[in-house]
Amino acid sequence: AQSVAQPEDQVNVAEGNPLTVKCTYSVSGNPYLFWYVQYPNRGLQFLLKYITGDNLVKGSYGFEAEFNKSQTSFHLKKPSALVSDSALYFCAVREGGGSARQLTFGSGTQLTVLP
Amino acid sequence: EPEVTQTPSHQVTQMGQEVILRCVPISNHLYFYWYRQILGQKVEFLVSFYNNEISEKSEIFDDQFSVERPDGSNFTLKIRSTKLEDSAMYFCASRAFTPPETQYFGPGTRLLVL
Asked: Could you report the per-residue pLDDT of A59-77, keeping only the tens digit for each?
């Protein structure tokens, strides 16, 4: 079985400061990891993914995430937050190469960037 | 940039009624999915569809649910007899065969069962 934990329901950060949204995962094999963002009354927008290769992946809107196999984590980061980054962020995982192709999502973290 | 579209954006129905939620996946994609998100809860997988048949389904996807690709562009989710607990946001997603990893989501249909 695969699972994702996002330990923080809410993250507040001041504009211009760095932000981190935490995610840890559990899968039986190699993980494929994803971050999605959801703005109010909108669908899930793909931000970035880790499949293989460099542990630091860069995505849309200046976001990046670091895959840490020993800590089974995939934290989302941005060096300088914008008010427009305020949204609900979901981490998702699936087992790479396995038959279970569906994504398992975390419970989401509401990011609020304060002006 | 191509995107997944869904109709309607909102649907209100009476308990026991049938609803059909519609999705138009990205045109060259071959895998299709439905997920749902009950208000305030996490996004949950319902079903995946490939080559005109269900690939996987979750325990949520019981006999009241069905999916269909009636033509070359639409992908539908039917709930035969809606229950109050079916009220949720329903997301359609699609992905290409290669690279296979990224699922792209539609804007969702908010279903309210009264």
From this structure: 989 999 999 999 999 999 9
Tell me the CATH number at B58. 2.60.40.10
Q: Read off the pLDDT of residues B6-21 as tens digits, 9 standing for 90 and up.
A: 999 999 999 999 999 9
Q: Are residues B91 and A44, on separate chains, in Cβ contact within 8 Å?
A: yes
What's the number of domains chain B is made of?
1
A/B interface, count of CB pairs below 8 Å: 55
Does the beta-carbon distance from B42 to A45 stay under 8 Å?
no
Q: What angle do CA A19, A25, A28 make, to 5 degrees?
A: 155
Under an 8 A CB cutoff, do A105 and B43 touch? yes
Cα–Cα nearest to A75, from A8, A9, A20 = A20
- Give the residue numbers spanning the domain of B64: 5-113
Walk me through the domains of chain A, giving residue ranges and CATH numbers: 3-114 (2.60.40.10)
